[in-house]
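Section handout, structural biology tutorial.
Before the tutorial, make sure you can parse a SMILES string by hand: atoms, branches in parentheses, ring closures as digits. In the record below the ligand is adenosine-5'-triphosphate, and the chain has 253 residues. In the tutorial you will relate the predicted structure tokens back to the input. Do not try to memorize them.
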Amino acid sequence: MTALLEVENLSKNFGGLQVTSDVSLTLRPGDRCALIGPNGAGKTTFVNLVTGVLDPTAGTIRLEGQDVTRLPAAARVRRGLIRSFQVARLFRSMTVREHLELAILEREGRTFRLFSSVRRTPGLEREVEDLLDLMALGAVAETAVGQLAYGQQRLLEIALALAMRPKVLILDEPAAGVPHSESRRILDAIERLPKDLAVLMIEHDMDLVFRFAKTIVVLAQGRLLCSGTAGEITADPRVREAYLGSRADARRH
Ligand SMILES: Nc1ncnc2c1ncn2[C@@H]1O[C@H](COP(=O)(O)OP(=O)(O)OP(=O)(O)O)[C@@H](O)[C@H]1O
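Predicted structure of the complex:
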């Protein structure tokens, strides 16, 4: 099957500090991959390199076989590489429905006259309803985003990412700030994502990681330590050592 995302030997230096070292990763349609690693392992830097927020020092990034290593972030978005939105970017007084309408119009390049565009864009209402259903947000469609519970905000972030029609979806801590008891709802929604989408999740909540991921990739000190199924990862002494080592470091500092 053709790879959607191919990352080859990616490296990044900040001055003399190598934060990403020779990391490779491939995602195919339908993949459910989690990227884990102790604090400071380089997960955020890796995502920033892949999405085009940072330029790599070395390595190649391909989307559907095309080299995008030097393309700006917006061009990668247009090719279907989408990262879940950060809640800080949402307008607190706008409703959930209005956010979804705006995201779809933005994708279509039709935000110039927002309200007349909403009426004139065929299929927009249907698409909004589908996204509300998929993310179980129907009951709060007319609620201002500032009034949403954390879990609902996280679901809206995923819905907004989906409105961009991703081929590769990067979920950056989708359950951040959500009480553990509610993270199940986020996972349920993630399990309903289109089957052909490739999903890469960065997440600290291991219950969520183990339930979601078919493959887990472990980073430590900027390097790919190992990758495999949940069973393989938990049995790997190097993983335990990386996590315990980082805790011992944290205690020392
Ligand atoms: N702009 C920068 N300049 C210098 N060093 C940086 C920069 N950005 C990140 N780093 C360093 O790179 C390392 C990796 O950071 P990164 O945020 O990618 O890790 P992470 O795995 O996402 O951590 P966390 O799980 O805590 O979010 C850290 O040591 C960090 O201090």
